[in-house]
Amino acid sequence: MIKSSEFTLGPHVDKFEKAFSKFIGVKNCIATNSGTDSLILALKSLSVKKDDEVITVCNSFYATAGAIVACGAKPVFVDCDERYQIDINKIEKAITKKTKAIVVVHYLGVPVDMPKVMSIAKKHKLFVLEDCALSLGAKVDNIHTGLHGHAGVFSFYPVKHITSAEGGMVITNNKKLANKNVMGHDVDLKWCKLM
């Protein structure tokens, strides 16, 4: 990077996206400037907006709830279970007519029971976003975290599994979401790298 003087964007980011995509086994990998912005952009691609409600766990880093608020939505907190993951048995009680999505956090690398979460989401027609900031490499039923929901996000902050000092990644196998109009721009999520 120093030899090329390319410190942002460019072929290094493209190469990293391809390598990350191959490791996870996902079709669409979009690098961003931070895990927080990855959460915001993923929620916007899921059409989360003002007055929507988004269910999430109460014991995550504030960026999880902050991203929901940044979209104009209201975070609805569900307590954690004995593994410090969202208590799946309490999710349905938190669902209202305004609920748009569920954000699960694979806290400290311990994956949430995604088949159960997806079953609830399907029943209530909700989107699911996986916050994988602390679960790179973790799997549920031999499938990487981030691939069970509609989208997944990762962080490359210094205390994460791999770091670029800052940075994040949005992943999805849904081409429509990857090409979603975000923030009024008629381009795919790759535009977000310019933020």
What would you note in describing this structure?
With 195 residues, the protein is of the alpha/beta class. It is 28% helix and 21% strand. It is built from 6 helices and 9 strands; from the N terminus they run αβαβαβαβαβββββα. It has helices at residues 10-24, 35-45, 62-70, 91-94, 114-124, 175-178, and strands at 28-32, 53-57, 74-78, 99-105, 127-131, 139-140, 143-144, 151-155, 168-172. Strands 1-9-8-5-4-2-3 form a 7-stranded mixed beta sheet, sandwiched between helices. It has a two-stranded antiparallel ribbon with strand order 6-7. Helix 2 (35-45) crosses helix 3. The longest helix has 15 residues, at 10-24. The radius of gyration is 16 Å and the shape is globular. The protein starts with 9 loop residues before the first helix and ends in a 17-residue tail after the last helix.
Structural class: alpha/beta
Distance between the termini: 20 Å
Give the rounded overall mean pLDDT. 85
| Major β-sheet strand ordering | 1-9-8-5-4-2-3
* Main sheet record: 7 strands, mixed
Identify low-pLDDT runs.
Answer: 183-195
Number of helices: 6
Rg calculated over all Cα atoms: 16 Å
Shape: globular
Record field, number of beta strands: 9
Measured as a percent range, the helix fraction is: 25-40%
What order do the SSEs take from the amino end to the carboxyl end, as H and E? HEHEHEHEHEEEEEH
